[in-house]
Amino acid sequence: MSIARVHGDAAGFGVGLAALCDFAIATPEAKFSFPEVEIGLAPVLVLAWLPQLVGRRQAMRLTATGASVDAGEAVALGLVTQVAEAGELDTQITALADGLRKRSPRVLAEIRDFLRVTDQATETQATEMARSRLVVGSLRRGRD
Known about the structure:
CATH topology of the largest domain: 2-enoyl-CoA Hydratase, Chain A, domain 1
Strand order of the largest sheet: 1-3-6
Largest sheet: 3 strands, parallel
Order of helices and strands: EEHEEHHHEHEHHH
Number of helices: 8
Helix content: 40-55%
């Protein structure tokens, strides 16, 4: 599992790093932007994944305008998991990491993999994959 710690501004690739982590915790002062348009570049690498995360219209708004969003809006858009005050940032990250360490690494890997393979699937396809994986997961359950 990966956890991003965002304390300050994240731009372009920095937003991508935070957004593509399994979890991202930011301070209220953090700002997120895609400024490539300001220097005459289309952020095509970002556009490979951003629409699936925030929706097509929001991806257009963020990349075409270079607009900066605060941490609260970043949570609402799905770029960040949660906001924590600067003095609590490390405590929140440690608590999250400690909680994850208590979980089965196999189960966490299955969750991450399922989210990845169903990202572009229809609801019907995802449900069918879930049924198949539920059986296999139940059989593996006693091995942890």
